[in-house]
What does this fold into?
Amino acid sequence: MRNRALLFTTGSPFSRIVRIVLDELGLDYERREEITTPTSESRAESTPTLQVPTFWDGDIHLWESGLIAEYLLTNYGASQEGNPPLAKSLTRDESHWHDRLIASSVHSLGTSATIIGQMKWGGTTIEESDYLTVCSEQFPYLIGWLEKQIPTKGEGFQPGLLSVQDIALGCHFGYILNRPIGIDPKLENFPKIQSLLECLNKRESFRNNPILWWEPGVVGYAEDGVTPIYKDG
It folds into this structure.
C-alpha cells in the first residue's frame, strides 16, 4: 500500500468530505484521528493552517478539503461501482467555472456553520454577536441558490453522477443537523436538497463515515462508535 495518511478530527465536516471520497475510491490510508484538540504547536507540525483535514500521499502533503478531493480524483480516477458513480473530476469542461462556483458556495455554507459552532462552544451565541448574525443570515440565501443549481429532484449537481459538491453539501448539512448550534435550515422549503441528502445518507460511503453527535463535554465514543462519552458522565 502506498504511504497515505489522513489527519482529521471526529466531528469535522471538512475531514468527512475527504474520508468519503477516499471510501468511494477504495483507497486505504492511515487514520490519524484526533478526539480532543491538540496544542497549536502540535498541530503546526502537520499544517501551518492549524486545521484539518491534512493529507499525505507519499511525498505529497496537502491540506484543505477541496484541494485534497481534487487531488484524489485527478490521481486515482473515479470508481464506477456506485449508483450513481463518483464523478471523475471536480468540474466538467463545459461548465468549469459554474461547478467551481457551486463548490465555493457549499464551502462558504460549511465555513459559516463551523464558525457558529466553534463560537458557541466558546460561549458566544448568534444573538450575542453581529458577526455570527451575518453568518447565520447567509443560510437562506445560500441554500436557496444551491437549490436552484440542482437540475432534477432526486439527483445532485451533476446529473447521473455523485460529485464532490454533493458530498460536501451532505457533510455540511450533516454537521448542521447533528450539532446543537442553533441553526434550522428549514429543509422542507428546499425539496431538491432534501431529496439529495436522503439519497446521500443511504450511500455506503456515508454510512461508513457517519456524522457523530458532539457538544462540549464529549471526550470519546462507546464501543458502538456512535454513543458519546461525556467527561463527567
Residues 46 and 157 are 33 Å apart (CA to CA). Helices lie at 13-25, 40-44, 65-76, 96-121, 130-149, 164-177, 191-202, 204-208. The mean pLDDT is 91.
